[in-house]
Design brief:
432 residues; Rossmann fold; 2 domains; five-stranded parallel β-sheet; 14 helices; 15 strands
Length: 432
């Protein structure tokens, strides 16, 4: 029998931070609705609802994660971590705030890397994080919670649903007794919305937008990281994959360009608006790298010394095509070689390609802000990494037939609007 292990954490009361209203109810009702759908779920619920309730300290939650990680789940099983409360970033890391978190000084809380590691150690074949937390800064340096968590989830092959984009507020509606994101997710369960990751993301995004508009709340855009790619069609309740029937219109938007040019942001934004599946080619590489735990080089060295020596130069593109075979519409980010692009163009997909470029200085600033990199590159090393990837064929891709060169020197919303305008000429529009 398929097992599902769920750890739900809801924190209204904080000793040093702003009190929240709906987090305890969010997690409690989600857990109740989910276990109705999947009666074989083993759920653990941890909440802090009163100012005198100090049980959900960082130490207590760490202990709960250790127990959760020792679940001894199997490849067919599912592990879920659900958090509603404050989130923040500090010194290049993302944290979930606990009762004893302070707004300044040394961070107290749970590093999201520890959550992802607990999901990994649980042994579950599929893992999901649901994070209903503000991603705005609350008094620290200008760092936004979530970007690093999303990237780490992709690298580790874990799905993650976020209540809002970096810098946005995760709104609460006390009249409903819920946060906007959690209410949308709970409504999906109650209305028997198909709970594949792709359809769940579409439903949540639309309902969060609608709730915020009707209640005159600030902009809040929910989104998901879905990895591996084939999990886009995975029903998280019963563990089965949905089959797409009928005529198929297979569009693939390809976004290439140097590291930290904004490809992931653009791909994620477009995928949410267009209801496409967002695919990072690097996810395939990180999945392969997990089979070489003793390898100590960087990812560029791994590609050159392991991947391209043992396989073909277009192998990453072939992995993407294989993983996407059951899908209709995808956005693929991160091609590095002309051989990879050639493989995508040779497939039966309709390819719409863009080359996104930003100056090396702007990209380095972004790298320093968001990437947890054990190598901690200097600017000169960052440029050397650029040159290495350009030599693979990344520079040549910008001049390949069909590619539209896009300079990313505007605000993110302006870039998304620009690309959406271009996509209309290919008869691709939001909401379709």
């Amino acid at each position: 029998m398929r097992r599902i292990k769920l750890l739900g954490v809801g924190i209204n009361a904080y000793k040093h931070l702003r009190t929240l209203s709906c987090c305890v109810n969010d997690v409690a009702v989600f857990t109740d609705e989910f276990t109705k759908k999947a009666s074989h779920t083993e759920a653990t619920l941890l909440v802090s609802g009163r100012s005198e309730d100090e049980t959900l300290t960082a130490v207590r939650l760490t202990e709960a994660l250790e127990t959760f990680s020792d679940a001894h789940l199997a490849a067919n099983d599912l592990a879920i971590f659900y958090f509603a409360g404050h989130g923040y970033a500090f010194d290049g890391k993302d944290y979930l705030a606990t009762f004893d978190t302070t707004a300044t000084g040394v961070p107290i809380g749970i590093n999201t890397e520890d959550v992802l590691e607990a999901l990994n150690r649980s042994g579950a074949g599929t893992s999901i994080m649901f994070i209903d937390a503000c991603r705005a800064n609350f008094g620290r340096e200008i760092e936004y919670f979530g970007e690093r968590t999303a990237e780490s989830a992709r690298r580790r092959g874990k799905m993650a649903f976020f209540s809002c984009w970096p810098g946005e507020i995760s709104n609460e509606l006390p009249a409903l007794g819920h946060g906007v994101f959690s209410y949308a997710l709970i409504t999906a369960l109650r209305q028997n919305v198909s709970t594949t990751a792709l359809e769940l993301e579409k439903f949540i995004f639309a309902n969060v937008n609608g709730l915020c508009a009707r209640n005159n709340l600030g902009r809040q855009r929910a989104y998901a990281v879905v990895v591996p790619t084939e999990n886009a069609l995975l029903n998280i309740i019963d563990g089965r994959y949905k089959e797409i029937a009928g005529p198929r219109r297979r569009n693939m938007i390809v976004i290439a360009g140097p590291s930290n040019a904004g490809k992931t942001m653009l791909g994620q934004s477009l995928s949410t608006l267009l209801n496409y599946t967002h695919v990072e080619m690097s996810s395939s590489v990180w999945k392969t790298a997990s089979n070489y735990p003793e390898y100590n080089g960087n990812i560029q060295e791994f590609m050159e010394q392991i991947v391209w020596r043992e396989r073909t130069l277009d192998c990453v593109a072939q992995d993407v095509l294989g993983a996407s075979s059951a899908l209709d519409n995808v956005i693929v980010c991160g091609a590095r070689r002309t051989e990879e692009v050639d493989a995508l163009f040779a497939s039966d997909w309709k390819i719409i390609p863009f080359y996104l470029y930003t100056s090396s200085t702007d990209r380095f600033r972004r790298y320093r802000k968001m990437v947890q990199d054990r190598f901690h590159l200097s600017y000169s090393d960052f440029v050397k990494k650029d040159l290495r990837e350009y030599s693979w064929g990344l520079a040549a891709i910008a001049h390949m037939d069909g590619f539209e060169f896009v300079l990313n020197d505007a605000e993110p919303d302006a870039l998304v609007t620009q690309i959406l305008r271009r996509l209309r000429s290919f008869d691709i529009r939001p909401g379709e």
